[in-house]
Write a structure and sequence with these properties.
CATH superfamily of the largest domain in chain A: Response regulator
Strand order of the largest sheet of chain A: 3-2-4-5-6-12
Number of domains of chain A: 3
Oligomer: homodimer
Chain lengths: 357, 357
DNA sequence: CTGAAAGCGCTTACAG
DNA sequence: CTGAAAGCGCTTACAG
């Protein structure tokens, strides 16, 4: 049934009436615009308090012909990994929902292996003077420079995927990598004996960059699990400096020749698919394999049984929620959680059909 | 930076101009109201098509002083289980977001163990003539009668938590119970030997009702996992007809006396906490325990190590999404997925801090 | 069957 | 420093 609203007498009109001013003046103090005497300002603010006035967002957006520009800066989707398609999809979903509220989203992409491309795109964003920025801070120094510039220009920014903790970001939305690795340790421990040898695989082109640090953080957590729980499993480790299939397989072959008694593999990023491919080709069964990210290749190996566990951090939601945080802050003017850790999801063959990335 | 909208010439005004009618008439055909000649109706519809006109939801809600009434019918939160607090929280969250769009939510609760209370509350809802209904169809016949009445009154309804498949619901939002149980099988299988004995525990006051069927469905899935994968673990089963702590412990004691070699326990609902409590009191260690639902008691046993895995179906999101589906259908007039299976989440000690129920 | 006007609760120029 | 008017894109009576 449709009902009429009870006519609550509130709104700018009522405030104006009580304060004996025009609604234009009320609007001015509502938006902290200048040109109002302290006296009337105080009077109006008092009434706003008394009435517990909440502006009507609908009317506000409708009347205001302003459009807000949010710009995003994330890696482009490469053949190397289509991981970033997921956050982008979340961003696109948010874009669709916010379009009618006058939000536009500008999309800027950089090459994960090219700092300059990051810097270049960042500069473009600064020139456009976005109202808000969402970025994946891949390169520590360059990202910091960029967000410093944002701060100077009063542009709020949110980090997704990885954090730079000491920056005045609006918020961080992404995983707690240490605990994500820790969980990996616990999962594997359930499946193997107390003596089984474990291989940790880090695949990263450059070392000592922000991305490689991410992997190390997971490894730390992983190892911490065993240490904290008094587990003595021998752990061997391999750093693979190239991300292509062939290099990974080559490296895996070498390490398995040295350690044929490996019983479990923990891959600290989405390249677990390439590792699984190696196992399949060499028919290395009865290994427990854990890795990251719900991407097509990985899911297919999960279904075939060459991967046991995929740990995921809801990348689609990261993108969606990142944009929504800007919206909450800039339009709704509501509080935003400074650090929003994503859940650490576990995907197995049997629940992958229901997983929402 | 704030920008002006590019002045896209669309909207009722433009349609009216092109069709050489008034905007009132355009509005009439937009809402399929009568009183428009077929001829002009066709003309206007054609122009709407051409312009690919999308109404401005903001303006629509602002201008329309109608309020929509959504009513929910779920179990009240009892001492027996605070599970239903979670869906309710999701509903309340949706309510807060939709309030400014003129949506009101009426909350009706029934007693899980009392069909009459369900019927009574359902009647109240029908009398109020809600615009949309969300319900947990606990009692099959009574639920069907209620939703039949809804259908007759053209009130769309959504099911959460459990489904009645052949009903013309707007949608179902909840788990696929069979696969949820199946996943339980897979989890346990990772942790135990091929010969270890497994105990399945069903706790349910009444048997042969919709709720008990839910448990059976999970058990089916659970057993199917072992069958499909050629696992020969002996499985024993116990049906406990009382839900209080004492009865559960008593029953567990009996079964463990008969089968001291049980190595793993699968509890098909949230009463896993009581089972864990029994294990703790009797210091029965080295068992792998799996159960359902992220409720306080269970999480505390998870942290203490008496429960290994909790399987969860995001009850908060079920409530939230249920209301949002009604909103999408009734206000946004967008398509709604007829069956939205929730993810089958796995919560361990190590990721429970990050879980979003 | 159709149109013209008022209004939803705001913001935006413009005038003084 | 402040007010009065117009307008955002719709819906709602009311009049004919």
């Amino acid at each position: 049934m449709s009902r009429k609203n009870k006519n609550e007498v509130t709104g700018v009109k009522e405030i104006a009436r009580r304060a004996k001013v025009s609604i234009g003046t009320v609007d001015r103090v509502l938006h902290n615009r200048e040109g109002v005497s302290e006296k009337t300002k105080a009077r109006i603010n008092k009434i706003i308090q008394e009435l517990n006035y909440k502006p009507n967002i609908l009317a506000r957006r409708l009347a205001s012909r302003k459009t807000l520009q949010f710009d995003i800066l994330i890696p482009h989707i490469s053949d190397e990994s289509d991981y970033w398609q997921a956050p982008l999809n979340g961003i696109i979903q948010a874009e669709a929902e916010l379009k009618q509220f006058g939000i536009n989203i500008g999309k800027f992409f950089f090459d994960q292996n090219d700092k300059d491309s990051f810097v270049k795109q960042a500069e473009l964003i600064l020139k456009r003077k976005a109202d808000g920025v969402l970025l994946a801070p891949f390169f520590l120094d360059e990202s910091t420079q960029f967000t410093n510039a944002c701060s100077r220009m009063q542009i709020p920014f949110v980090f997704i995927n990885s954090d730079i903790p000491d920056q005045p970001s609006l918020c961080y939305i992404g995983p707690d990598l240490f605990h994500s690795g820790y969980l990996g340790g616990q999962l594997i421990q359930y499946c193997i004996s107390g003596k089984a040898k474990i291989l940790v695989v880090n695949v990263s082109k450059e070392i000592k960059n922000q991305q490689h640090n991410r992997l190390l953080r997971k490894e730390e957590g992983f190892r911490a699990y065993f240490k904290d729980n008094g587990k003595k499993n021998p752990i061997v480790k391999i750093d693979i400096r190239k991300t292509d299939q062939w290099s990974i397989e080559k490296n895996m072959k070498d390490i398995f020749q040295q350690h044929p008694d490996i019983r479990s593999v923990f891959v600290t990023n989405s390249r677990v698919g390439s590792v699984a491919s190696f196992l399949e080709k060499n028919n290395l069964k009865n290994l427990r394999v854990t890795g990251y990210d719900f991407i097509e290749e990985n899911v297919s190996f999960l279904k075939k049984g060459w991967i046991d566990f995929l740990i995921c951090h809801k990348p689609i939601e990261q993108g969606y929620r990142g944009i929504m945080s800007l919206y909450q802050h800039l339009v709704l003017k509501t509080e935003v959680e400074k650090t929003y850790y994503m859940p650490v999801d576990i995907v197995l063959k049997e629940n992958c059909a229901f997983y929402r990335n």
